[in-house]
Design goal:
Structural class of chain A: alpha/beta
CATH topology of chain B: TIM Barrel
Largest sheet of chain A: 8 strands, parallel
Number of helices of chain A: 10
Strand order of the largest sheet of chain B: 1-2-3-4-5-6-7-8
Number of domains of chain A: 1
Shape of chain A: globular
Strand content of chain B: 5-15%
Oligomer: heterodimer
CATH topology of chain A: TIM Barrel
Order of helices and strands of chain A: EHEHHEHEHHEHEEHEHH
Strand order of the largest sheet of chain A: 1-2-3-4-5-6-7-8
Largest interface: A-B, 33 and 37 residues
Number of domains of chain B: 1
CATH superfamily of chain A: Metal-dependent hydrolases
Helix content of chain A: 25-40%
Distance between the termini of chain A: 12 Å
Order of helices and strands of chain B: EHEHEHEHEHHEHEHEHH
Number of strands of chain A: 8
Distance between the termini of chain B: 23 Å
Chain lengths: ~260, ~260
């Protein structure tokens, strides 16, 4: 069983993606042996009103809800986000809010971030933050996104004592200590290298209870993330946690 | 058969993964042979350190003669010393080709005598390459060669064999493909690097032809193998990339 915490459908404005639709994603999941996935809309990052992309996403996956669980994207600096968030949760059953401060150009330490995270928690949603969306070394000259420092992410998480957060497409972050510290669930999307060693190194600072499989398809090829998990030196129980159990526990809607 | 035409290792010197680790990873991922070099990331370079680096690769070749193929690192700025290293490591030591780093761009005339020597020996030249568009990244290697820097020397020396390093090395890989499509057929590109953007390999095959692509990992083993497995190309094209093209290059050697 494999659950993927980090997939996308839609278009990326700076290069042509060979696959873009929910049907494409399902085909890729089938060929990679991935059972279920959290999915977001790439357009949600770039539309002025991200909520239009949430609407498109809800429509795109409505016949595939057994396998594709949609994630909302909202910009907390844009008018009306609170009502939009409510619609994502209550009408479209989106269990996760993805925050993209890299492109929406606010800081996670700004009060707007705190407000939208509070609202998401009130709606029993999990909040996911991206360490990065794409590798910026080859960025388009039009891509003015900013790099979000890990300290900024941790500072925001730290405001919500005991809450669970998802940290996606990031290098490993040492989880904060303490009973009331936030619980950070990280995906393996960029924890590659050395034939599983990338994940093994992360397991030294982040327990298997807090890692989730993530591929970042349809932006990237999924197979490398699978090869990394296959080759990591970990127990069967640890691998099962990473491959699906942790995400299933964190997001009951994954089923 | 799979031949990784671009990787690195250390026996007792330098920052690269150990030769034991490189061979073990190769075995786990179905790679039969791995080309290894030991480039230096400084300018100017110290000939004593180059000597030490190449000795390290010779030791790795002795330890795993059936797996590790050595590539001789040289800095063309040390004209006489570079020729002596080619004699020592390629002619007498059995290394299969040369490796350049970003001390000079590929179209710098300083490479002339080295290219002439490689033509005489029939050995390929692998250059660390990329087109970083992020200014911070570019500042770390201002003289990195883009694929466009291979066009003039490849035309001037049609008998020489040039390999553009790591299509996914971190930069604008679409630029690299487009620029290489303007270069003559004696320029190849390796598929290594940590960037695994969906569609990268398919686009390279479409615009350059599978016969000009060479499988490699540059130590990003899961990603290097995974992107070739995932790419929507024919089994025949995959075989050419895994090893056939590079075997053809190896057969051109006169030493």
């Amino acid at each position: 069983m494999i659950y993927d915490a980090d997939t996308w459908i839609g278009h990326w404005p700076y290069r042509r993606l060979p696959q873009t639709s929910a049907a494409d994603l399902l085909r890729k999941m089938d060929s990679a042996g991935i059972d279920k996935a959290l999915v977001g809309s790439l357009q949600g990052i770039f539309y002025k009103d991200s909520h239009e992309a949430n609407r498109e996403l809800a429509k795109s996956v409505r016949r595939h809800r057994d396998r594709l669980i949609p994630c909302a994207i909202l910009n907390p600096t844009y008018f009306g986000w609170a009502e939009d968030l409510k619609q994502c949760r209550e009408e479209w059953s989106m269990p996760v809010l993805r925050l993209i401060p890299q492109y929406h150009l606010y800081k996670l330490t700004d009060s707007v971030a705190e407000e939208i995270v509070t609202a998401a928690h009130d709606l029993k949603m999990r909040v996911a933050v991206y360490g990065r969306v794409v590798d910026l070394r080859g960025r388009s000259h039009l891509d003015q996104s900013r790099k979000v420092p890990t300290e900024e992410i941790l500072a925001m998480f730290g405001k919500f004592r005991g809450a669970s957060f998802m940290l996606l497409n990031s290098g490993a972050v040492k989880p904060p200590n303490g009973a009331k510290a936030p619980k950070i669930f990280q995906d393996t999307a960029i924890m590659h290298g050395g034939c599983g060693v990338g994940i093994e190194n992360n397991l030294k600072i982040c327990p298997a209870d807090r890692l989730m499989f993530g591929s970042t398809m349809l932006l990237r090829y999924p197979r490398p993330a699978l090869i990394a998990i296959e080759n990591v030196k970990a127990t069967k129980a640890q691998k099962e946690k990473i491959l699906y159990k942790n995400l299933k526990r964190l997001i009951p809607e994954m089923g | 058969m799979r031949i990784d035409c671009h990787s690195h290792c250390s026996v007792s010197y330098g920052p690269w993964p150990s030769h034991h680790r490189v061979v073990a990873d190769a075995k786990r991922l179905g790679m039969d042979k791995v080309c290894c070099s030991h480039p230096l990331d400084t300018k100017p370079t110290d000939p004593k350190k180059i000597l030490k680096a190449n000795n390290d690769i010779l030791a790795a070749m002795r330890a795993y003669p059936d797996v590790i193929l050595g590539q001789c690192y040289i800095d063309p700025g040390h004209a006489r010393f570079a020729q002596d290293e080619i004699t020592r490591c390629v002619v007498n030591g059995g290394m299969i080709g040369l490796k350049f780093y970003h001390q000079y761009r590929m179209n710098d005339p300083v490479f002339g005598p080295v290219i002439e020597r490689c033509i005489e020996l029939g050995v390929p030249m692998l250059m660390h390459a990329g087109h970083p568009t992020d200014m911070a990244e570019l500042a770390t290697q201002p003289l990195i060669s883009g694929a466009d820097h291979f066009i003039a020397p490849a035309r001037l020396y049609p008998e020489a064999i040039f390999i553009i390093g790591h299509i996914g090395g971190g930069g604008d890989w679409e630029w690299q493909i487009k620029a290489m499509s303007r270069a003559p057929k004696n320029v190849y590109m390796d598929t290594s690097g940590s960037v695994i953007d969906a569609g990268m390999i398919e686009k390279a095959v479409r615009d350059l032809g599978a016969e000009r692509l060479l499988f490699a990992t540059d130590m990003s083993t899961e990603r290097g193998v995974g992107k070739i497995l995932d790419a929507d190309i024919t089994p025949r094209q995959r075989e050419m990339i895994w090893s056939e093209n590079f075997q053809r290059i190896l057969q051109m050697r006169k030493v």
